[in-house]
C-alpha cells in the first residue's frame, strides 16, 4: 500500500497500460509513453536477432525510464511473445531457436517443462518479466489449414483439448520455474475462425478472442518492490 499511496492518479492509471516498443530498439514514442504518460508496462514487439546481451541493454534502458516522476520509481513490467516457431520475438546469441508449439506438443510434458525452464531462463537473463504464452486454442487437424491465426502457423500444442491442456500447462510451469510470468491465450474461439483477427476486422463471430489471466512467477530480486501489484 505504501507504493500505491505515493503514486499520483496518473501514475496509478499508467500501471494498467502496456505500450509497445520495438525489440530491436525502442523508439521515442515508447519513451514518451513511459516518461510523460506514466505507462507502467512495455511489450517488446516485432523481431530481433540481437541476442540476450543486447536485449538486456534495451530493457535496462527501459528500466532507467521508471523514475519517481514517471512511475513513482516502480520498475516496468516487460513482456514479449516467445511461443516458438513463427512467433519468437527474441532471437540471436543466447536465445534458443524454439520449435513450434505443434512440435513441442509431441514431446513428453516433463521434457517440455524442462525446455521451457531453459527458454524462460534466457528471458530472465534479458530482464523480460512476462511471456505472452502459451497458446491454449484448440484447432482440429482437418480445420487447421483454414485457421489463419493459429493452425496456419502450428501455434497449437495439438488437436485435442487434452493435449493442448497438458502441454500448455507444462510450458507455463517451465516458464514459472524460471521466474517468468505467463498468460494463456486466446480462447474462446480463435482456433475456429477463418480470418486472422490481427489483420481482419468487421467480422461477426459468436465468440470473441481474448487473452487469459496473467500467471505470475514468485517474486524475485529487486525488480518488484514490496506491495507492488
Shape: globular
Mean pLDDT: 90
What summary fits the major beta sheet? 6 strands, mixed
The N- and C-terminal alpha carbons lie at a distance of 9 Å
Q: What proportion of the residues form beta strands (DSSP E)?
A: 5-15%
Strand sequence of the main sheet, in spatial order? 1-2-3-6-7-8
Strand/helix succession: HHEHEHHEEEHHEHEE
| Cα-based radius of gyration, to the nearest Å | 18 Å
In DSSP terms (H or I, runs of 4 or more residues), the helix count works out at 8
Count of individual beta strands = 8
Tell me the helix content.
Answer: 25-40%
Regarding quaternary structure, how should these chains be classified?
single chain
Low-pLDDT residue intervals, each spanning 5 or more residues: 207-211, 224-229
Structural class: alpha/beta
Fold topology:
Elements: H1 2-5, H2 9-14, E1 18-22, H3 28-35, E2 41-45, H4 51-63, H5 68-71, E3 77-80, E4 82-84, E5 87-88, H6 101-104, H7 109-125, E6 130-131, H8 161-177, E7 181-186, E8 210-215
Parallel strand pairs: 1-2, 2-3, 3-6, 6-7
Antiparallel strand pairs: 4-5, 7-8
Amino acid at each position: 500500500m505504501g507504493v500505491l499511496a505515493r503514486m499520483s492518479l496518473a501514475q496509478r492509471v499508467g500501471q494498467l497500460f502496456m505500450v509497445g516498443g520495438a525489440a530491436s530498439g525502442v523508439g521515442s514514442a515508447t519513451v514518451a509513453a513511459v516518461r510523460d504518460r506514466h505507462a507502467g508496462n512495455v511489450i517488446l514487439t516485432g523481431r530481433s536477432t540481437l541476442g540476450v546481451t543486447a536485449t538486456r541493454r534495451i530493457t535496462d534502458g527501459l528500466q532507467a525510464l521508471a523514475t519517481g516522476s514517471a512511475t513513482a520509481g516502480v520498475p516496468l513490467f516487460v513482456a514479449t511473445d516467445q511461443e516458438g516457431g513463427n512467433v519468437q520475438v527474441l532471437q540471436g546469441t543466447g536465445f534458443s531457436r524454439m520449435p513450434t508449439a505443434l512440435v513441442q506438443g509431441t514431446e513428453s510434458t516433463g521434457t517440455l517443462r524442462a525446455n521451457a525452464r531453459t527458454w524462460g531462463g534466457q528471458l530472465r537473463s534479458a530482464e523480460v518479466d512476462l511471456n505472452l504464452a502459451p497458446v491454449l486454442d484448440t484447432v482440429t487437424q482437418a480445420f487447421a489449414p483454414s485457421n489463419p491465426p493459429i493452425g496456419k502457423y502450428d501455434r497449437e500444442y495439438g488437436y485435442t483439448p487434452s493435449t493442448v491442456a497438458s502441454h500448455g500447462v507444462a510450458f507455463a510451469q517451465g516458464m514459472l520455474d524460471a521466474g517468468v510470468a505467463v498468460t494463456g491465450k486466446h480462447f474462446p474461439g480463435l482456433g475456429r475462425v477463418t480470418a486472422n483477427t490481427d489483420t481482419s476486422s468487421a467480422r461477426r463471430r459468436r465468440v470473441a478472442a481474448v487473452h487469459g489471466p496473467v500467471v505470475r512467477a514468485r517474486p524475485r530480486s529487486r525488480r518488484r518492490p514490496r506491495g507492488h501489484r
